[in-house]
């Protein structure tokens, strides 16, 4: 039920209806297999349907096109509601929403608004009232995290084509849904000790196996269109390679997989959960690398290896670091020649640092700034820096990195706490994860039932 939210605004607003993404081996096992999107041309007896593979449309194919408003069980969703929510999506994409994507986003928004209306209606039918004060409090909390007052946040939304009303409606729907789940599903969802024991055994059996966190942009194709689709995939790869595109944004825009709404993130998976062609590509990749276009059943895919790990095994990249960053900012208008000279001097001087105790002295001589940070998870750093810091000894310095716009920096490694052998999650953690997964599945069925019973009149 989520689509892209506000971006700087986005990161905060995703918390309203965020999909819970877990990075544990436990979650991967509980969630089951995640595979790349595939297309089939066979009938569907397993779904209780009988659809011929050569089905022909006999009626008017335009009868189900998007209409600008709808009445859901007597409650109207207007074209204005849709357009204001689209404005939130546009803000989430840094003001960019290509014309060719508008129709797809409009359909997603319309579907989301219908779901939210059903959730609010169901809460009211269950005598659950969402107080206006609670909605205003959440709206103010979001505004405060953006360092704005509620009034300023309201003006910001309006200036970008959205509205406080659209935002508050979203908040109301989320609070209504959470209240419904807390009353009707949470109290009646339990996990047996046998299930927990079985999960512990499965986790122990998985110890040491490799898992990969993968992003995928899947582009559907037919035999007639495969060449054109592959060429489109190469253009997307080029945009990712030259830095003009963001993987998560491009996945939301172009991927035909169900993971598009979460930026193409497949989560933590094992290679046997992927089609053979994707598994072979992922096995030879390093974190941060892209691969594609790769032919898969029904189309082509672009892969992005976000991270990899060994299940329940200590990994050097799980280390917690103490760092000092020495940064030299370039003055506005600096020429490429001047930037190169400054970077060269900076490199020579910082290379001579022998231990963190000399960082301030060298920085002062260069006119650079020093930032000291403890408790930095190595996995939170960009993959190239992870690789460098894994090989460094305490007191050593990374090679310089930066740009003409941001200046040049180095990191001095002041301390590194290596991880111990990973332990199995506690019985309580396993039970709670199993319970939450069961709650999520029941919540999905609950919403499907609401949709099935709804009377929706598209105007």
Automatic annotation (TrEMBL):
Q: Which residues cross the membrane?
A: none
**Keywords for the protein's UniProt record, in alphabetical order:** Chaperone, Isomerase, Periplasm, Rotamase, Signal
In its keyword annotation, does this UniProt entry include Iron? no
Residue ranges constituting the PpiC domain according to the UniProt record: 209-307
User: Which Pfam family, giving just one, matches this sequence?
Assistant: SurA_N
Asked if the Swiss-Prot or TrEMBL record annotates the protein with the keyword Isomerase, the reply is yes
Gene3D superfamilies given in the database record: 3.10.50.40, Porin chaperone SurA, peptide-binding domain (1.10.4030.10)
The protein's matches in InterPro entries, at most eight in alphabetical order, are given as:
OMP_Chaperone_SurA, PPIase_dom_sf, PPIase_PpiC, SurA_N, Trigger_fact/SurA_dom_sf
Q: Which GO terms describe its molecular function?
A: peptidyl-prolyl cis-trans isomerase activity
Signal sequence, start to end: 1-36
According to UniProt, the name of this protein is: Parvulin-like PPIase
**Source lineage:** Bacteria, Pseudomonadati, Pseudomonadota, Alphaproteobacteria, Sphingomonadales
């Amino acid at each position: 039920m989520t689509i892209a939210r506000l971006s700087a605004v986005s990161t905060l607003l995703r918390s309203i209806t965020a999909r819970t993404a877990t990075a544990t081996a436990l979650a991967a096992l509980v969630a089951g297999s995640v595979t790349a999107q595939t297309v089939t041309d066979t009938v569907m007896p397993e779904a209780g349907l009988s659809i011929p593979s050569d089905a022909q449309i006999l009626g008017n194919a335009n009868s189900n096109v998007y209409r600008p408003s709808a009445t859901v069980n007597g409650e109207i969703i207007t074209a204005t509601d849709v357009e204001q929510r689209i404005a939130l999506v546009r803000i989430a994409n840094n003001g960019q929403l290509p014309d060719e994507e508008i129709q797809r986003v409009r359909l997603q928004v319309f579907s989301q608004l219908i779901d939210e209306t059903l959730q609010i209606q169901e809460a009211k039918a269950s005598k659950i009232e969402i107080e206006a004060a609670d909605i205003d409090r959440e709206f103010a909390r979001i505004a405060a995290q953006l360092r704005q007052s509620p009034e300023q946040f309201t003006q910001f939304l309006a200036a970008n084509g959205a509205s406080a009303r659209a935002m508050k409606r979203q908040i109301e729907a989320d609070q209504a849904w959470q209240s419904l789940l807390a009353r009707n599903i949470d109290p009646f969802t339990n996990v047996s000790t046998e299930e927990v024991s079985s999960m512990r055994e499965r986790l122990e059996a998985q110890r040491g196996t490799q898992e990969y966190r993968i992003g995928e942009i899947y582009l559907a194709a037919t035999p007639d269109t495969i060449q054109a689709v592959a060429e489109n995939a190469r253009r997307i790869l080029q945009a990712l390679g030259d830095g003009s595109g963001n993987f998560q944004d491009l996945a939301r825009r172009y991927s035909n997989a169900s993971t598009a709404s979460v930026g193409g993130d497949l989560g933590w998976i094992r290679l046997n959960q992927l089609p053979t062609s994707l598994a072979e590509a992922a096995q030879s990749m390093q974190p941060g690398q892209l691969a594609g276009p790769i032919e898969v059943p029904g189309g082509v895919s672009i892969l992005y290896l976000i991270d990899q790990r060994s299940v329940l095994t200590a990994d050097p990249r799980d280390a917690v670091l103490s760092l000092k960053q020495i940064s030299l900012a370039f003055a506005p208008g600096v020429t490429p020649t001047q930037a190169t000279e400054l970077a060269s001097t900076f490199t020579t001087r910082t290379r001579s640092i022998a231990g963190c105790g000399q960082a301030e002295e060298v920085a002062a001589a260069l006119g650079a700034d020093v930032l000291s940070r403890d408790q930095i998870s190595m996995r939170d750093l960009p993959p190239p820096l992870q690789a460098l810091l894994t090989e460094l000894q305490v007191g050593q310095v990374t090679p310089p990195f930066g740009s003409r716009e941001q200046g040049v920096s180095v990191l001095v490694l002041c301390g590194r706490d290596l991880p111990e052998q990973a332990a199995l999650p506690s019985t309580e953690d396993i039970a709670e994860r199993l319970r939450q997964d069961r709650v999520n599945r029941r919540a999905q069925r609950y919403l499907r039932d609401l949709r099935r019973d709804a009377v929706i009149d598209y105007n």
